[in-house]
Structure formats: C-alpha cells, structure tokens
Write a structure and sequence with these properties.
- This protein has a single domain (5-156), classed as Aminopeptidase (3-Layer(aba) Sandwich), CATH 3.40.630.
- Helices cover 22% and strands 24% of the residues.
- The chain contains four helices and six strands.
- It has helices at residues 22-32, 41-49, 92-101, 120-124; strands at residues 5-8, 11-14, 52-58, 61-70, 75-83, 111-114.
- The longest helix is centred in the N-terminal third of the chain and has 11 residues, at 22-32.
- The model has no long low-confidence stretch (mean pLDDT 93).
Length: 157
C-alpha cells in the first residue's frame, strides 16, 4: 500500500510504519488508556504490523496515533485513537480523522466500526452514530486479557 502523508504547518500525518515511535505509542496506550491498559509491547507491535496506521507528528515527535483494521472492500474498524494532552484543542483530532476517512483505500466501505466513550462529538461529525439496533450487536470482550485472565472462557472462570 502506498504511503500517504499530509502536512499542516509543523504537523504531519503519515501512514509510514517506519516513522512510528512504538515505545511512545506503547507508553500512552498501556498507561494512559482504559481500553488498552497493560497491553504488552509485542501485542502492540503485532497489531501495528497488521493494521493501516496513522501517526501524527509535531516536528518529527509522535504526538498522536490511530489505526484501521480493514478488508479494504466492505468494513473498517477505527481504533487506538489518541492525541497527547498538550496538543489537544488545536483541531488535530479533526484533521486526523478527516485524513483517515479520506484515505483512498477506505472508500466505498459498507460499514465503519468504532468503540468509544470519549469524543463522541468528534466522530459524529464524520457520520458515526449510535448503533440503531443494539439488539443485533454481539461481542466477545475480555477487558482483562492483558492481565492473563480470560473471563470469556467458561473453563477459565
């Protein structure tokens, strides 16, 4: 897949995996989020290797990140979106999501998926909405997976 970059003043968004600061991403996701709290670095590396990644940089310093899991024809999952606190309030999250939604390999998809409990206002600007039929939605979710506990396995409870 062709690497894409967008620039705005001293900020850059890039899909180049080689530019990603894995240690910085790991520090934020493992220590400052509830959704990926405690994620092992090797798990993070595997997730990045198998995703379309969007790094956000200020003068080459990683200040934000998002990734897409997709088949590039019918569905995409947007996850691990963040901007470091000191860079929030500058319109960078809106720019990042705009670049993701405008990526040429993510056009014409039937479904986009996002799980969030923050910044719903941002995602709604891009067409995301509450699940219209939550009774159709199912999941197998293990929030303790990084602690070595599989509460979704009946043999492990």
């Amino acid at each position: 897949m062709k690497i894409r970059e967008a620039h705005k003043n001293d900020y850059t968004i890039s899909t180049d995996k080689d530019k990603l600061d894995i240690l910085s991403i790991h520090q934020f996701l493992a220590n400052e989020t509830d959704w990926a709290n405690g994620i092992p670095i090797n798990t993070l590396k595997t997730s990045i290797e198998n995703s379309l990644n969007f790094g956000l940089y200020y003068e080459n310093k990683q200040i934000g990140f998002a990734r897409i899991i997709s088949d590039y024809s019918t569905i995409a999952y947007l996850g691990d979106v963040y901007i470091l606190k000191e860079y929030r309030g500058k319109g960078l999250s809106k720019w990042l999501i705009s670049e993701i939604m405008g990526h040429p390999d993510l056009q014409g998809l039937r479904r986009w998926i996002l799980l969030t409990n923050t910044a719903e206002w941002l995602y709604k600007k891009f067409g995301f909405m509450e699940i219209p039929n939550p009774e159709f939605y199912m999941e197998k979710h293990n929030p303790n997976v990084y602690n070595g506990v599989d509460k979704t396995n009946p043999n492990n409870v």
